[in-house]
Amino acid sequence: MESLIRGNVLSHVPNGKQFCFPFVTGHWTSHSLGKQVLVAEPSVVPGRLCRDRPMDPVRVAVVGAGVMGLSTALCISKLVPGCSITVISDKFSPETTSDVAAGILIPHVYPDTPTHKQKQWFRETFDHLWAIANSADAREAAVHLVSGWQVYRSISTEVPFWADVVLGFRKMTEAELKKFPQHVFGHAFTTLKLEGSAYLPWLEKRVKESGAVTLTRRIEDLWELQPSFDIVVNCTGLGSRQLVGDLEIYPVKGQLLKVQAPWVKHFIRDGSGLTYIFPGVSNVILGGSRQSGDWNLTPDAEISRDILSRCCALEPSLHGAWDIKETVGLRPYRAGVRLQKELLARDGRRLPVVHHYGHGSGGFSMHWGTALEAARLLNECVQALRTPAPKPKI
């Protein structure tokens, strides 16, 4: 395998892997000196569809390289045989929104999505990460179990839909509640946490091992990808506002602090979800903030002071935290996750698209489940492409 310079070029092509791209079709191989060379196949006309025969590879472009793009590419490689996958993005880790997310599996609720569907996505994601946490990959992927409390200022009789997915979900005892004098009720449970800055490179590595390639390029219009690709998967998050004209998606700015406080071992989350303390592998995350419609990625010192004050009220020992670093990200909010097929048409041309974006603050909690669903939608597109058009009756 050889990695090439990124910048509108293929950045990873596995040895011996056949591929089809806008300018040339061929494969990488090794010659006697141990170097890799491109063996072109000049019989293929540039821009010509590779899918001239039913079993030719279907060329799939996954646009976006955050947690949605990478997990979708990996799910496609596992579930949809006969695809040639390219992940295209102007930003890869560590420059994505996913790199700065808190990364704990406590689901965000989508009011417009059926509860059973949200539970399915969460369970599939939990099972996926649980398997990693119990494997030799746990350290590299930075996935681990964490126990703690979600506390409320009033008594709640509502049991969240995910209660039987996390481990050991129960009401807090009176002894536990004494730790939180401003709160009167709470739940204790064990869930999973990951660090995006480690998990994304882990995902990207597995995507490449599956035979996919990556390309650093900014896409301004999905039609740029046709006819070089047969199907496009749109995982651009907030970028979909401009890329596909989705005005339902908007940013919710989130600011958090990453601090050193190694004695903090349990997570604490206020029932509103606005204030939280999440211990991780390399730091403790303190949050947070929600500023709807704010595109500004500059940290606000006043918000940082407010976050630290609220978190210290929940866990007074945090007054001793050090190495405090501010981080800002823009959550891609819309009424519900967009998981949908669309057939674009222009000047007699057609381009099948699968949309997969709009997770808001629930991205990591749902990412594998929704990626599996996106892969199933893509498989439907592949089957449609491979089904011969009916011959007209004479």
Automatic annotation (TrEMBL):
Cofactor: FAD
Amino acids binding D-dopa: 276, 331
Cellular localization per UniProt: Cytoplasm, Cytosol; Peroxisome matrix
Primary localization class, coarse: cytoplasm
GO terms for MF: D-aspartate oxidase activity; FAD binding
Catalytic activity: D-aspartate + O2 + H2O = oxaloacetate + H2O2 + NH4(+); D-glutamate + O2 + H2O = 2-oxoglutarate + H2O2 + NH4(+)
Presence of keyword Cell membrane: no
Annotated InterPro entries: D-amino_acid_oxidase_CS, DAO, FAD-dep_OxRdtase
Entry annotated with the keyword Flavoprotein: yes
FAD dependent oxidoreductase domain: residues covered: 59-377
A GO CC term assigned to this protein in UniProt: peroxisomal matrix
Binding site for FAD: 97-98, 236
EC code(s) of this entry: 1.4.3.1
UniProt record similarity statement: Belongs to the DAMOX/DASOX family.
Function: Selectively catalyzes the oxidative deamination of acidic amino acids. Suppresses the level of D-aspartate in the brain, an amino acid that can act as an agonist for glutamate receptors. Protects the organism from the toxicity of D-amino acids. May also function in the intestine.
Protein's UniProt name: D-aspartate oxidase
The organism of origin for this protein: Pipistrellus kuhlii
